[in-house]
Design a protein that fits this description.
By secondary structure, the protein is mainly alpha-helical. The protein has helices spanning 3-9, 15-41, 46-61, 68-79, 96-99, 103-106, 111-136, 143-155, 157-165, 169-184, 188-197, 202-219, 222-242, 247-260, 266-273, 281-300, 305-318, 335-348, 353-376, 381-401, 403-407, 413-420. Helix 10 (169-184) runs antiparallel to helix 11. The protein is globular. The N and C termini lie far apart (63 Å).
């Protein structure tokens, strides 16, 4: 076709397309304005403030981003004072090449504006995650159930506190399942580059990262390592050229954070619940879960996508119980586990599936809000502990409850007879 013909065949946007684009723009501006307003009136944002403040300190103020000054700013935001020795120190413990990714938001001098933009990006990421994960499972839920998952997923307690605190867990979860999608489509270099981006938030992604490494070696997908290595080389070069001396302060910050977060681990909670058992419950639980999870990895590396997704969800659910500090704002990473469990319940029980799905979804949605209500009304401390520890435990139990059905989807002879009757 000649250039003249191509030019003549070009059409302007139709009225419907123009109206749709205008509607999307108005919706985007409205959501951004709402998030900025909420960022101004609601307290919190400490996780994002820590990184925004560190990036801004380096870029504009010329202050060491890993210094006590940045930690004290976050402590004043959270506690209204400097942290006590037993309190979480909020020391910046992200590698500098990750901190560089916050530079665009650090250009906003108004923290509320930067926080509002980050909240909007997190909300969009979570909506895309829910939609893409349902699609990747090749599941077509009824419209009402799809809408219910969207509402419960975005307005659930742990999603809301992730948005409010500005935790990077939403972005890490989005990237984690983008890695699975990339591996499924054999975009291995992209998977490797994305894997590099989650190789720092270890209290969220440590076991998922190790699972991906086991998968790569078991299947000889070496191009994933090429993508990881190239991203590592580029980002390290940029970071050390920008700030040559960030390595040692970063290591000190990581060690300080690890040392002072011991009261937030599963072992600490277990020793408080069972004082007579000493401190052995946590380590033995971690060891047992580690062995079981490794066996699941070995069984999943050469299996179908559904089993790999199940194992990835299990890896994310087990991570908080392995000795890392547990933050409720990180529990948004368990949302894909809930979606997978709901899908398996829907497929498993065809006659009672509506009521069972509503029961599972309602419990996952309402119980955290009830526990939070008990916490703020001076209920027993066990409610605050359960608000922190219960989600990963419930996710592990739920995933194993539906394990057989996740791996062997055809219905049993009893299910078929029951449906005929």
């Amino acid at each position: 076709m000649a250039f003249r013909d191509i030019r003549k065949s070009r059409k302007w946007l139709s009225a419907e397309e123009t109206g749709l684009l205008l509607l999307m723009f108005v919706l985007f501006v409205g959501l951004l304005s709402l998030n900025i307003y909420l960022a101004r009136v609601l307290p919190g944002g400490e996780q994002f403030f820590l990184r925004w403040s560190g990036a801004r300190a380096f870029l504009i103020e010329g202050v060491e981003p890993y210094s006590a000054t940045i930690a004290e700013r976050a402590q004043n935001l959270v506690y209204g004072r400097q942290a006590l020795p037993r309190e979480y120190p909020y020391a910046l413990n992200d590698p500098f090449y990750i901190l560089l990714l916050y530079i665009p938001l650090a250009l906003f001098s108004d923290f509320a504006v930067a926080r509002g933009v980050w909240m909007l990006l997190s909300e969009i990421s979570l909506v895309v995650l829910i939609h893409s994960f349902v699609r990747s499972l090749e599941w077509e839920p009824p419209r009402w159930l799809y809408i219910l998952l969207m509402i419960f997923g975005t307005l659930g307690y742990y999603s809301l506190i992730a948005f409010g605190s500005g935790a990077p867990a939403v972005a890490v979860t989005f990237l984690a399942f983008a890695i699975l999608y990339s591996l499924r489509s054999f975009s291995d270099e992209l998977a490797g580059a994305l894997l590099f981006l989650i190789a720092y938030q270890w209290e969220v992604s440590a076991l998922f990262f190790l699972f991906m490494i086991v998968f790569v070696f078991a299947n000889r997908r070496w191009r994933v390592l090429y993508g990881f290595g190239m991203s590592l080389a580029v980002m390290l070069a940029i970071s050390f050229l920008s700030y040559p001396g960030w390595g040692l302060p970063y290591i000190r910050a990581v060690l300080s954070d690890w040392y002072r977060s011991g009261s937030l681990t599963f072992s600490s909670f277990a020793s408080r619940w069972f004082p007579g058992a000493g401190t052995s419950i946590g380590p033995w639980t971690s060891l047992l879960l580690g062995v079981i999870l490794f066996l699941e990895w070995l069984g999943a590396v050469n299996s179908n996508y559904r089993r790999i997704a199940w194992t990835a969800c299990l890896s994310l659910a087990v991570t908080p119980l392995m000795g890392f500090a547990i933050f409720p704002s990180n529990h948004v990473v368990l949302l894909p586990s809930l979606i997978l469990i709901v899908m398996l319940v829907w497929e498993r029980w065809t006659r009672q599936r509506v009521w069972l799905v509503l029961l599972v979804s309602s419990c996952a949605f309402l119980v955290p809000f009830w526990l939070y209500y008990r916490v703020i009304t001076d209920g027993p401390r066990i409610h605050a502990d359960l608000l922190t520890v219960l989600p990963p435990i419930a996710s592990v139990v739920g995933l194993y409850w539906m394990r057989w059905w996740a791996f062997r989807s055809p219905r049993t002879w009893y299910d078929q007879i029951e449906e005929r009757t």
